[in-house]
Amino acid sequence: MSTLLDTNILTRLAHPDHAQHPAARDAVKLLLERDEQLCIVPQNLYEFWADATRPSAANGLGMSTSETQKELSQLRRIFALLRDERGILSEWERLVARHSVQGRTTHDARLVAAMHRHRITHLLTFNVHHFARFPDIVCMTPENVLQTAE
Known about the structure:
Rossmann fold, 5-stranded parallel beta sheet, globular
């Protein structure tokens, strides 16, 4: 099975002092041990860069561009990077119109559009409620994943 990672999983992995880091790390490790394909899309990399290079005082990671570049290289080595396929834009337009998506959650709709295009049904995220309007995907939190291992 393939699972798309939400950007918040990636930022927690890169922030060892964050309270959610252990859950993100352990869930990703467990899924990889189960031979699940963990995927990212270019949007994850754009969002990660924005979050990582934003100052800590502004709810970012406060990383330098060179630190962020190294982190992106590592993410690309660990996770399968799926391409921005033709058809993601039209699928995104369909989703935002159908589900009346507004504001910042349009970014989440684009991740779902990429999932549809790549035929991925599962998403690992800390923000399950952001994706609740999309009934055809399965959202898992790191805590959910870890509970299934117990």
